[in-house]
Amino acid sequence: MIGTITCGLPILAEENFNGYITEAVDLLPSGKLFYLETKGNSMTPTIPVGSLVLIRQQEEVENNEIAAVLLNSDTEATLKRVRYQNDTMILMPDNRQYAPIIVNEQNPAKIIGKAVKVTMML
């Protein structure tokens, strides 16, 4: 686990190694994988606050998939559902109390990876 990611307003993106999580290798997808712990509730009810999200590092995701995304010149990160509308990428929260983030030249974004597993913490 390398840190936290916001499900709300973007937070400073920094890697903070927090330890290891044991998983059965045969149940994991291929590729470089890492866990992030969620903060904020913009992805509720799909991903509750404090959940662990397994991210597969990749630069692209399909329409409507959830991804970890870097914003503001790679200094802030957020977890959102990625939607494509024509040539525009829109980062959508699952919680309707939050506004979408429209990616453009003034608000650039870069996908870090796809959310492939969510573990809800009790």
TrEMBL record:
It comes from the Bacteria. Residues 2-116 form the Peptidase S24/S26A/S26B/S26C domain. Coiled coil: none annotated. InterPro entries: LexA-like, LexA/Signal_pep-like_sf, LexA_repressor, Peptidase_S24_S26A/B/C. Gene3D superfamilies: Umud Fragment, subunit A. This is Peptidase S24/S26A/S26B/S26C domain-containing protein. SUPFAM superfamilies: LexA/Signal peptidase. It comes from Vagococcus elongatus.
